[in-house]
Structures are given as structure tokens and as C-alpha cells.
């Protein structure tokens, strides 16, 4: 059993502080001062841990003020519970004070049970209880209850049990190490000084009520720019330690466009969400129940930021049953109606800050302190009032005033006064007007055309002009007008600032406008060729027009036009855009974004020499242009859903192309040979190009990372890709017959999906570094023997491979084997060696499952056909209840016989409910649930799982003596029956490889596969105790971290940090 603690401070003390002592120890002197405590002090001194010295305190019936202060000034309190601890009212009062500090200040509390049973402490029983009763004999009932409550609480804090250690010195070293780790886990200072945040957090924490074991959904509502996201980020930063998994999903607005495939969009949202929260790139799912299946037993913290569509909530937080007990979901939105629709009643509406707080916000950005410089006091107050107390406005205006003189402040105030009576968003215009002309031009182009665009693409789009884009982006970031994220590569502008930019354009005189955004004005310009030489961009929303006929000479008078965007923001309307066959595009066009382009090709005079991004989704194009064109500036081509596209042009000169998106180009037959020379290409998406048959023979593209050819049903051959660094390869539903040497010589980890390849009968070679292999519903007859050497393979999915008769020896570190509906499968060559591995053989009725049960008994869980509990399980009972008596230290396996009935439904997963009652204590029973897809189950099946999957901590709080445990199993939806139960105990410690050893083995395997020395990582890992069963997800995460590490040093550093965080969570 390990030390645990109440970790970080709540909002009442979220600002970092300095402590006088690292540790305060509460103990009964005669029991431990000359023995255990003296050794702890010595070890702490060697470890550099400062501990309060109580020698100067004179003990009495009440706690001295100096001792109370010492408790408050200590980062951690360690309570040493010995046999006579409860005989001292001093100790008991000290304990009450410690727990008060834990509750009020978030102080960490650790426990050591020195010769006493934790149960005796909680219940005040045994010799410990006798001492307690004697102490309480002359005390009031109020004091007795207060002490009893404190002992119950501290007894429930898992800690070191002295009696379980054969070596005291090792125990003390571990305690010192645990204390050091907790001291090193300093709370985040990211939100120090955030004005008013503490009050917001108090309100949010009251609604979230982290002590409640139920699942809660809490919303943060308010206008744009009010600080909703900041509050949500603070909650995530300060309270993530409480949860097993956390996820911050930002930029949800716009992730659910109207008029598209609703089911497909929900799938995509869930895939991205699961990849985020499980820290596994490229997760693919085939139904909408996966979130519930993966997270129903996990305590999770999920932040859904800037939600603007009810479908987003339905996809990501459809029901609280999707998440484990104690989970919290926080939703930020401007739309209160959306919250009502989803039944979210716990809402915190963020109000505008007080005048005092607003003034401080302005000062922090204008003066970098909480008050104004001398001489600016009155000016700061006036500007605060003029900003209307909008936090985003205060931040932007304050940044623009930084370093300005008093007369410049006066000018700003004069401008602000003119917009006070208008929409509060106009306040943001002040920051815009503080820019020079070139910076304003860049700002407006980002607002209209380039938000969320790659910064490098933006720089290329302007590299032929007189704008210093690099400097301009830096100025905009410093003025808080944009953010640069994803390693400073992606530009993000707040939506409110975008709106302000659009209003700024509307305010310009028509003949001075560089950017046209008003649809009637654009119609007039394009129909009558009224453009001017100053126009650099057109953003044409055709949603609200009926018909427009563009003049052949429309763009001739716009030689500076660089950005052309034609789109439809609303599905309603019958807009028609007529384009003459001889219409000429501007020669120096940088962005051509024209949705549903109606012509079959671009005009022969079209010159793509300067083009950086071509986005013509949903077009009627059959081809783009003829011949070889200069394309060195081109970085992205998106022609998705251009159903009539028959051919691509020669792309030989597109040497800087990074993204080629051709999904649903159903008339496309081949990729031109020139694609094999796109050496900077990273993404190649060609899903459902149903007529695609030819890909260049040698796609040796070293930059290629993601390839998807799903649904290319006529594609028979995948080219040889020996030099690439592909991370994802999806050739599902293609006509490939053999993977042969495709990608076999690659040297980077790969997720390989071949779902539904009906003509795939064999794989003569496989990429050695595959991490996930998905062959579901293929016609494969044999898995190659070489798979046993795939040291990075974590998941093998072969469901529905009906011609597969046997499986060869599999790699030892495999985490998941999914083989449902393999009707011909008879043999699996050898057992897996991973104690947390999961395997499923639904409807594999030819499988010799008895041999599997005998050989694979040490596996984590298994699902396979069977009508009765195998004889290996020597504790059996008919029906759905099983009673066991065993020692707390004994591990065991559970086996259930499940029989589906007529209430099985295909639109939901079945749910097995398990309840564990220990020693008849129904009030403190534990519940667990498991999900299965039994909709295709045609007979009885066995579900085998280890006790550790049910119990979060098998030893915590349980007596060493034998105990009675009753397991009660049931179906949540009554769609299957539990026919029989069984269990088998294991007293042979060697029959279960310790999880720390398994983790070390896995790490060694991965590091060896990457040609790196695993010794440093394993050395640090082996310092810890054995790992919990719940660690399985984190181990997969660690494996992926190692796989994706740039070098050994990075791997070691990352793994050490990850291991520490995981252990601190579960130990």
C-alpha cells in the first residue's frame, strides 16, 4: 500500500505561496520519537526536506498557537498513527487542525500506520479504540464526535502500513521519495495575478462540488470576450490532479457545419475527442457508443469550450452515464438556449467585472502592475469606463496603450468616446486603430481570410508585397489581437475581433476598400467590372443573393487582387453564380477559395504561378488546367467532393505542396506520376475515390505522414513507400490483394488500417514498426509468422475475418486482440504475456477455447464462446451471485457465463453491472460496469476478468485476515442473463508478472526497437512499487510517447515525467 495525499490547493489558495516548512509530523512521542521518527528525520535531512521541530513546544491539553501556525506553514502534514496516538487529546486536537488545513487550504496529508490496523483507526476499535474511549471518558460528546470524525477521515487516507514492510529503512526511503515528489509537483502559476479569477473559481467549485461522487455537467455562459475560456482553463489546470483522464477541447465553434452528414460529423468529433483524452493519435471508431465504452469507468474532467451547436454536446457528452463516478464536464458557450435543450441546469453566468477589477485588468496590461503609473491615475479610470468593463476589450486596449504618453492616452479616449453608445464590441476597434497602416492591413486579411491558418502559409501569401508579415504578426500578438499556438505556427484571432475587423471594413469609404465583403457591392463590382486597383481581397457570401452573372472582364481592373473567397454560409437560398467560359482570374492570385465552382475547368489563361492555396470543394470541375505550370508557391490543394474531377494536372513543379485533399473525387482514375515528386507532402487524403485505380509506382516521399485511401474500391495496388515517415495509413475498403512490400522498409511507427479489404487474402510482408493493425472484415487467410517480431504492435483487430483459421505466435507486448466473428478460427499459437492484455473471440465457435483458458490464464480479460464455467475455476455457483472468502493479498480470476436474450439491440452496447459487498457491509459496496457488443452474439459466452479490474485498490482499507466477498452480477438493460459464475484463486506470485516488471519489459522492448538504451528509464521505473490494474491505459500512453520521441534523451525525459505522474495518481 502506498502513501496518498490531498494534493493541490483549491481556489482559496490557488495563488502559489512560500511555506516555512516542507513537513509537519503529528505523532505520539513515546511510541515513535526515539525509533521511527528519528529515522525519518535523518532520512529527510539527507533528502533536503525541512521538517518542523516540535522540541520547543510545551505540550498541554490545548494546542499552542505556535503549533497551529507551524501546521499552517507546512506544505505537507504526515500523521503517524500508533497504538497510543488516540490516548493523547493533544494528538487528536492536532489531527483536527491538520484536517481543517487540508479542507481550507488544500494542504497535503500523508499517513503512516505504525502497528495499527487502518480499520481500527476508522472505527476506533481494537486496542486503538480502547485508548480512544479512555481519552474521551472525561470529554464532551461534541469533542468525542469531532475526534471520531477526524480519525475516520484520516483512516481513509491510504498510507504506508508498517506491518507490511519487512525492511523499515526501505519504507522510510520510499516515504522520503514520495514527499520529494509531492514537493516537486508545484501548483501551476499560470493564473497568478488573474484579476477576479479567484471569485469565479469559488462559484465554479461550488457548482462542481468535487466531493460529490456523482457525475456533474456544469456550464459557463456569458458574452464573447468575458473570460469563459480563462475560467475553464484555470479549472482544468488546478483540478486535473483529481481525475484519471482530462481533456480540454477548444475551438469547437464551427466544428459542426450545417448540411453535412450528421452521423459522420459526430464520428469525427468523437474520434478527435478520444485521441485527445486517451493521448492516442489517429483513433478511428465505427459507432457512436465508443466514448461510453471507453470512459464509463473512468473519473474524467472534460472541458468543451465555445460550444455553439447542440449536436456537439450530443456527440461528446450525450449522457452522464458515459463517464465514471465523480466525473465532471464543463461547457462554455454564449448560447443559453443550447444549455436548456441539453438539460444542463448547473450554469455559472459570468458577469462583467466590477469597476475596481476592470481598472486592475487594464493596469496589468498597460503598466504590467495592478495600479497606474504616477500621472495616469485619472486617465486609467476614464479608459476603464470607456471600455465598458469587457475583459477582452480591457486587455486589447491596455496592450495598445503600453508605453504611450499622456497625450496619446487622451487621443485614445477621444476615439473611445465615439463608440461608447454602440455595441460593446466596438471597444476592440481601439486596439486595431493603434496599429500602423500595414499592420491594419494584415489584421483585416487575417480577420476575413486567414484565421486558424498556418503562419508559414500566411507569410508566403504576402511575400510578394510590401508587408513585413513576420514583424506584423509579432505586433498583433503583442497587442493581444491574435494568438500564435501549435508551436507558434497557427494563427488564431478571437471571433469578436474578427467581427470588429469586418465592421472596420464597412466603415471605410467604398473607393478606399482593399477588401470587399458586402454581397450586393460585390455583385455590382463583378457584374459591371467596377473593381479598383486597390482591391486585394474579395470574400463573397452568396447565401443572400438570387443570381449574379460575372463579367468576363470582372477582375481586369483589380491587378492587386490576392485573395478570392466565394462561399455559402447558409444552406437556404437558391443562389446562382454564372461564370463565363472566358473569364480571366487575376495573375497574382494567392488564395483561390471557391466552393461549388460551376465550370468544368479554369480558363486557359489562368496562371497559378503565385497561388499558395487552392480550395475548390464541391466543384463541378473536370480538370484544373493543361500542361506544366510554375507551382513553387502552392502549398495546399483541396478538391474534396468534386465528383466530376477526372484528372489532376502535372504537379511536378509543386515542390512545396504539403496537403493534397481529394476525398470523394469519384471520377478520378489515377494520380499523375508527378505526385511521386512531391517531397514536402505531409497529408494525402483520397477517401472514397471510387474509380481510382492508379497511384505512381514509387511514392518515396520522406515527409508524408498521413495517407487515407479508404473506400477506393477499385484500387488494387499500394505503391512502395520505403523512405517515408508515415504515421497513419488507411487503405480500408480497397481492392488490394496483398500488401507485399508496401511500406515494409519504413523505420517509423505506423497505424495501419485495412478494414473491409475483401480481396486481401494474404500479407506477405508487413511494416515492422506497425503499432496498430486493423484487418477487420478482410478476406485474409493467414497472418504472417513475422508478426511475432513486431515489437511495437499494441493492437491487432481481425474481427470478421471469416477465412482465417489460425493465428501465429503474437508479440508479447500486445495489449488488444479483437477477433470477433472469425468463424473459421480454430487455433491461437501461443499465449500473450501482458497481464493487462484484452482479447475477444465473440462467435468463434470453432476455437479451442479450453486450451486458451489454460495457457492464457494470466491475461487481463477475455471474451469467448462457452456454455459453462471451465473446471479450472474451482469456486462456482449457478446464477448471478458468487460468494468468496479469501485473504486480501490473494489475487483471483472471475468467469461468467452470459446468455443473450430477445431484448438485445443493435443500437446500444450491453452493460454488465457488478456489485461487490465485503463482509456484509452493503452501505459501502462497490459498483463496476463492463460494456459488450452482444448484438451479434449467437449463443452463451464466457467473460473472464481479473479481480483487479473490478477493485480500484484491492488492498486499501481491507483487513489482512480472511474476509467474505459477495459479487452480484446483472444486466442493466435485461438483455442477457448471467447463467453461472466462477472464480479461481492464485497463490503463486509468479503466475502474475508484476506490473512494474511488465512495464519495464514493455519499455525495454520499445526502446530496443527504436535502437535506444532502455536502462535509464527502467532504472527509474523500478524504484516504484507494483502498478495498479488501471495503469493499463497509461502504459499504452507511455509506449506511444517512446515511439514518438525524437531521440533517446527525449524519450527518457518524457517517460520519467509520465511514470511519476501515473504513479503519484495510483500509489
From TrEMBL:
<feature type="domain" description="TIR">
    <location>
        <begin position="19"/>
        <end position="183"/>
    </location>
</feature>
<dbReference type="GO" id="GO:0043531">
    <property type="term" value="F:ADP binding"/>
</dbReference>
<keyword id="KW-0378">Hydrolase</keyword>
<dbReference type="InterPro" id="IPR058192">
    <property type="entry name" value="WHD_ROQ1-like"/>
</dbReference>
<dbReference type="InterPro" id="IPR000157">
    <property type="entry name" value="TIR_dom"/>
</dbReference>
<dbReference type="Pfam" id="PF23282">
    <property type="entry name" value="WHD_ROQ1"/>
</dbReference>
<dbReference type="InterPro" id="IPR002182">
    <property type="entry name" value="NB-ARC"/>
</dbReference>
<dbReference type="InterPro" id="IPR032675">
    <property type="entry name" value="LRR_dom_sf"/>
</dbReference>
<keyword id="KW-0520">NAD</keyword>
<dbReference type="Pfam" id="PF01582">
    <property type="entry name" value="TIR"/>
</dbReference>
<keyword id="KW-0433">Leucine-rich repeat</keyword>
<keyword id="KW-0677">Repeat</keyword>
<keyword id="KW-0611">Plant defense</keyword>
<dbReference type="InterPro" id="IPR027417">
    <property type="entry name" value="P-loop_NTPase"/>
</dbReference>
<dbReference type="InterPro" id="IPR011713">
    <property type="entry name" value="Leu-rich_rpt_3"/>
</dbReference>
<dbReference type="GO" id="GO:0061809">
    <property type="term" value="F:NAD+ nucleosidase activity, cyclic ADP-ribose generating"/>
</dbReference>
<dbReference type="InterPro" id="IPR003593">
    <property type="entry name" value="AAA+_ATPase"/>
</dbReference>
<dbReference type="GO" id="GO:0006952">
    <property type="term" value="P:defense response"/>
</dbReference>
<dbReference type="InterPro" id="IPR044974">
    <property type="entry name" value="Disease_R_plants"/>
</dbReference>
<protein>
    <recommendedName>
        <fullName>ADP-ribosyl cyclase/cyclic ADP-ribose hydrolase</fullName>
        <ecNumber>3.2.2.6</ecNumber>
    </recommendedName>
</protein>
<dbReference type="InterPro" id="IPR035897">
    <property type="entry name" value="Toll_tir_struct_dom_sf"/>
</dbReference>
<dbReference type="Pfam" id="PF07725">
    <property type="entry name" value="LRR_3"/>
</dbReference>
<dbReference type="InterPro" id="IPR042197">
    <property type="entry name" value="Apaf_helical"/>
</dbReference>
<dbReference type="InterPro" id="IPR036390">
    <property type="entry name" value="WH_DNA-bd_sf"/>
</dbReference>
<dbReference type="Pfam" id="PF00931">
    <property type="entry name" value="NB-ARC"/>
</dbReference>
<dbReference type="GO" id="GO:0007165">
    <property type="term" value="P:signal transduction"/>
</dbReference>
Amino acid at each position: 500500500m502506498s502513501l496518498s495525499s490531498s494534493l493541490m490547493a483549491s481556489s482559496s489558495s490557488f495563488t502559489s505561496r512560500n511555506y516555512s516548512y516542507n513537513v509537519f509530523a503529528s505523532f505520539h512521542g513515546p511510541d515513535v520519537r526515539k525509533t521511527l521518527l528519528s529515522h525519518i528525520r535523518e532520512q529527510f535531512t539527507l533528502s533536503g526536506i525541512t521538517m518542523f521541530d516540535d522540541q520547543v513546544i510545551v505540550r498541554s491539553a490545548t494546542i499552542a498557537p505556535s503549533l497551529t501556525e507551524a501546521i499552517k506553514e507546512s506544505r505537507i502534514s504526515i500523521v503517524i498513527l500508533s497504538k497510543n496516538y488516540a490516548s493523547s487529546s493533544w494528538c487528536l486536537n492536532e489531527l483536527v487542525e491538520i484536517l481543517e488545513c487540508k479542507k481550507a487550504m488544500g494542504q497535503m496529508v500523508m499517513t503512516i500506520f505504525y502497528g495499527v490496523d487502518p480499520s481500527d483507526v476508522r472505527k476506533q476499535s481494537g486496542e486503538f479504540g480502547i485508548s480512544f474511549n479512555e481519552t474521551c471518558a472525561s470529554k464532551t460528546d461534541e469533542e468525542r464526535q469531532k475526534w471520531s470524525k477526524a480519525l475516520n477521515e484520516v483512516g481513509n487516507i491510504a498510507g504506508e502500513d508498517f506491518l507490511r514492510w519487512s525492511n523499515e529503512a526501505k519504507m522510510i526511503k520510499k516515504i522520503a521519495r514520495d514527499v520529494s515528489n509531492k514537493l516537486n509537483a508545484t501548483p501551476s502559476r499560470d493564473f497568478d495575478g488573474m484579476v477576479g479569477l479567484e471569485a469565479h473559481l469559488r462559484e465554479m467549485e461550488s457548482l462542481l462540488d468535487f466531493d460529490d461522487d456523482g457525475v456533474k455537467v456544469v456550464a459557463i455562459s456569458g458574452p464573447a470576450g468575458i473570460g469563459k475560456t480563462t475560467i475553464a482553463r484555470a479549472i482544468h489546470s488546478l483540478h486535473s490532479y483529481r481525475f484519471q483522464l482530462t481533456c480540454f477541447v477548444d475551438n469547437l465553434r464551427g466544428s459542426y457545419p450545417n448540411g453535412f452528414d450528421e452521423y459522420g460529423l459526430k464520428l469525427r468529433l468523437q474520434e478527435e475527442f478520444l485521441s485527445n483524452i486517451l493521448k492516442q493519435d489517429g483513433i478511428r471508431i465505427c459507432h457512436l457508443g465508443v466514448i461510453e465504452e471507453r470512459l464509463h469507468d473512468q473519473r474524467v474532467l472534460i472541458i468543451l469550450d465555445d460550444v455553439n451547436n447542440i449536436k456537439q454536446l450530443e456527440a461528446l457528452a450525450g449522457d452522464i452515464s458515459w463517464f465514471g463516478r465523480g466525473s465532471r464536464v464543463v461547457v462554455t458557450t454564449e448560447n443559453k438556449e443550447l444549455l436548456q435543450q441539453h438539460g444542463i441546469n448547473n450554469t455559472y453566468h459570468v458577469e462583467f467585472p466590477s469597476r475596481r477589477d476592470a481598472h486592475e485588468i487594464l493596469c496589468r496590461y498597460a503598466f504590467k502592475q495592478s495600479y497606474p503609473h504616477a500621472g495616469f491615475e485619472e486617465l486609467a479610470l476614464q479608459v476603464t469606463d470607456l471600455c465598458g468593463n469587457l475583459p477582452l476589450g480591457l486587455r486589447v486596449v491596455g496592450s495598445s496603450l503600453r508605453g504611450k504618453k499622456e497625450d496619446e492616452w487622451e487621443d485614445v479616449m477621444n476615439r473611445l468616446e465615439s463608440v461608447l453608445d454602440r455595441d460593446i464590441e466596438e471597444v476592440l476597434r481601439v486596439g486595431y486603430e493603434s496599429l500602423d497602416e500595414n499592420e491594419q492591413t494584415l489584421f483585416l486579411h487575417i480577420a476575413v481570410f486567414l484565421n486558424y491558418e498556418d503562419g508559414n502559409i500566411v507569410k508566403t501569401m504576402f511575400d510578394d508585397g510590401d508587408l513585413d508579415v513576420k514583424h506584423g504578426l509579432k505586433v498583433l500578438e503583442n497587442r493581444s489581437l491574435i494568438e500564435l499556438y501549435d508551436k507558434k505556427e497557427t494563427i488564431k484571432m478571437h471571433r469578436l475581433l474578427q467581427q470588429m475587423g469586418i465592421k472596420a471594413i464597412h466603415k471605410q469609404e467604398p473607393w478606399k476598400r482593399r477588401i470587399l465583403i458586402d454581397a450586393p457591392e460585390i455583385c455590382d463590382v463583378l457584374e459591371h467590372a467596377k473593381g479598383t486597383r486597390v482591391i486585394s481581397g474579395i470574400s463573397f457570401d452568396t447565401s443572400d443573393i438570387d443570381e449574379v452573372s460575372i463579367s468576363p472582364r470582372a477582375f481586369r481592373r483589380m491587378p492587386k487582387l490576392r485573395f478570392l473567397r466565394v462561399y455559402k454560409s447558409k444552406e437556404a437560398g437558391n443562389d446562382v453564380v454564372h461564370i463565363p467560359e472566358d473569364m480571366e482570374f487575376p495573375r497574382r492570385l494567392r488564395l483561390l477559395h471557391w466552393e461549388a465552382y460551376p465550370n468544368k475547368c479554369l480558363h486557359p489563361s489562368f496562371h497559378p504561378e503565385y497561388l499558395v492555396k487552392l480550395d475548390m470543394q464541391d466543384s463541378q470541375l473536370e480538370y484544373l488546367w493543361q500542361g506544366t505550370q510554375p507551382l513553387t508557391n502552392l502549398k495546399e490543394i483541396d478538391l474534396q467532393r468534386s465528383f466530376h474531377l477526372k484528372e489532376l494536372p502535372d504537379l511536378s513543379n509543386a515542390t512545396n505542396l504539403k496537403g493534397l485533399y481529394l476525398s470523394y473525387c469519384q471520377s478520378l482514375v489515377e494520380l499523375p506520376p508527378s505526385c511521386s515528386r512531391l517531397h514536402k507532402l505531409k497529408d494525402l487524403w483520397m477517401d472514397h475515390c471510387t474509380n481510382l485505380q492508379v497511384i505512381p509506382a514509387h511514392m518515396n516521399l520522406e515527409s508524408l505522414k498521413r495517407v487515407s485511401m479508404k473506400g477506393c474500391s477499385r484500387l488494387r495496388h499500394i505503391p512502395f513507400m520505403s523512405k517515408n515517415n508515415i504515421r497513419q495509413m488507411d487503405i480500408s475498403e480497397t481492392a488490394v490483394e496483398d500488401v507485399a512490400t508496401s511500406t515494409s522498409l519504413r523505420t517509423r511507427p505506423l497505424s495501419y488500417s485495412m478494414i473491409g479489404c475483401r480481396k486481401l487474402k494474404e500479407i506477405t510482408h508487413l511494416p515492422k514498426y506497425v503499432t496498430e493493425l486493423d484487418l477487420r472484415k478482410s478476406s485474409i487467410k493467414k497472418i504472417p509468422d513475422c508478426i511475432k517480431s513486431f515489437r511495437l504492435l499494441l493492437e491487432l483487430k481481425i474481427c470478421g475475418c471469416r477465412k482465417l483459421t489460425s493465428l501465429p505466435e503474437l508479440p508479447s507486448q500486445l495489449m488488444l486482440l479483437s477477433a470477433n466473428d472469425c468463424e473459421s478460427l480454430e487455433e491461437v499459437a501461443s499465449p500473450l504475456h501482458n497481464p493487462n492484455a484484452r482479447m475477444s473471440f465473440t462467435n468463434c465457435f470453432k476455437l479451442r477455447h479450453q486450451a486458451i483458458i489454460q495457457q492464457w490464464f494470466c491475461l487481463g480479460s477475455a471474451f469467448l464462446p462457452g456454455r459453462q464455467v471451465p473446471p479450472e475455476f474451482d469456486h462456482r455457483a449457478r446464477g448471478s451471485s458468487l460468494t468468496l472468502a479469501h485473504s486480501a493479498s490473494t489475487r483471483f480470476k472471475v468467469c461468467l457465463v452470459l446468455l443473450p436474450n430477445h431484448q438485445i439491440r443493435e443500437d446500444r452496447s450491453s452493460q454488465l453491472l457488478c456489485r461487490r459487498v465485503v463482509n456484509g457491509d452493503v452501505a459501502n459496496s462497490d459498483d463496476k460496469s463492463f460494456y459488450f457488443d452482444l448484438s451479434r452474439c449467437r449463443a452463451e459466452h464466457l467473460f473472464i476478468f481479473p479481480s483487479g479490474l473490478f477493485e480500484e485498490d484491492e488492498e486499501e482499507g481491507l483487513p489482512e485476515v480472511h474476509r467474505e466477498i459477495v459479487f452480484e452480477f446483472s444486466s442493466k438493460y435485461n438483455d442477457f442473463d448471467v447463467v453461472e459464475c466462477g472464480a479461481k484463486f492464485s497463490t503463486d506470485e509468479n503466475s502474475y508478472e508484476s506490473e512494474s516488471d511488465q512495464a519495464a519489459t514493455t519499455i525495454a522492448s520499445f526502446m530496443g526497437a527504436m535502437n535506444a538504451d532502455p536502462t535509464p528509464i527502467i532504472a527509474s521505473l523500478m524504484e516504484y512499487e507494483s502498478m495498479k490494474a488501471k495503469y493499463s491505459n497509461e502504459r499504452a500512453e507511455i509506449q506511444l510517447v517512446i515511439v514518438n520521441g525524437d531521440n533517446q534523451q527525449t524519450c527518457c525525459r518524457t517517460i520519467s515525467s509520465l511514470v511519476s505522474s501515473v504513479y503519484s495518481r495510483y500509489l
